[in-house]
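cron nightly-structures :: item 1 of 1
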Amino acid sequence: MYPRSISILIYPPHSFSLSFYSSSLPSRIIMISSNPNEHVATGVQVNSTDHFYSNNPHELPIHHQPKSEVAWSTGLCDCFDDVPNCCMTCWCPCVTFGRIAEIVDRGSTSCAVSGAIYALIAVVTGCACCFSCCYRSKMRQQYKLPENPCGDCLVHCCCESCALCQEYRELKNRGVDMTIGWQGNAERQNGGVGFPPVVAGGMSRS
């Protein structure tokens, strides 16, 4: 058995801890602020490597970035793994992109705004892929995903629909409900409904 601990941290720094031996219970940390106007992040560590749940209703679970790259959970051409999204992306890619952008931007832009910008660029220039590839890069940085099968810009220029479908599936497989947006997922989490674990690299498909 390994030592586990329950620690109560009082901020400004005063602390005491109770240590005990357990082979199954995770470490729990409680932080208490002596300043009633100061917000202190609290929560329970649910996985030692994947993510941490916050009780802030405006935040989604924080996924700790792995030290090394993690493979995509599905391949670029696995569009039929999610047939409804495949059809939606084929006929109305601005909706798929808008939903992706809202999650990747952590709610700072809405699905409607991002989708409208995408559609406007597509109609005026025909090169919406130059806009959407930036979000693929941003998403890869957030989740430590590899740049494959080639560069982000090239993937979107050559296979725009496939790239959007893959990014959509990746977020969905990481526990995000793509149909309710960032705020809806935050409220769902705050209501006690947890997200599934991050898809491990070993579960990826070639």
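cron nightly-structures :: done
The radius of gyration is 20 Å.
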